[in-house]
Amino acid sequence: MVLAVFCVLSLLALSSGVLVFVVDSMARATFCLLVSFLAVAAMVLMTGLAYLGIVIILMMIIEMVIMAVFMVMFMMNPAGLMPMSMFHNTRGAAVISGLVFTGLAAGIL
């Protein structure tokens, strides 16, 4: 039973984590990230680390609510729900990430 719950929570964390990068609005990405963090916190609770699990839950809920409030205040589109492109300077980002990966891989060796 515990293994089944762990598998469900891990699939929920992974799928909602992927959805953060797939959805086309900032508000939906924020709530997908919250679901992912809450699933991870539930897995931490399953390991018997009650204090750490509760701290993760409280911290993530407060953080995501604050992020949503600032998103509503400062975004040009209403409440961050309008579709928008989440990709900016993809070529530059690919070059930078490749360089960082190469540097980290060289540091390991």
TrEMBL record:
<feature type="transmembrane region" description="Helical">
    <location>
        <begin position="88"/>
        <end position="108"/>
    </location>
</feature>
<feature type="transmembrane region" description="Helical">
    <location>
        <begin position="52"/>
        <end position="76"/>
    </location>
</feature>
<dbReference type="InterPro" id="IPR042106">
    <property type="entry name" value="Nuo/plastoQ_OxRdtase_6_NuoJ"/>
</dbReference>
<keyword id="KW-1133">Transmembrane helix</keyword>
<keyword id="KW-0812">Transmembrane</keyword>
<feature type="transmembrane region" description="Helical">
    <location>
        <begin position="27"/>
        <end position="45"/>
    </location>
</feature>
<keyword id="KW-0472">Membrane</keyword>
<protein>
    <recommendedName>
        <fullName>NADH-quinone oxidoreductase subunit J</fullName>
    </recommendedName>
</protein>
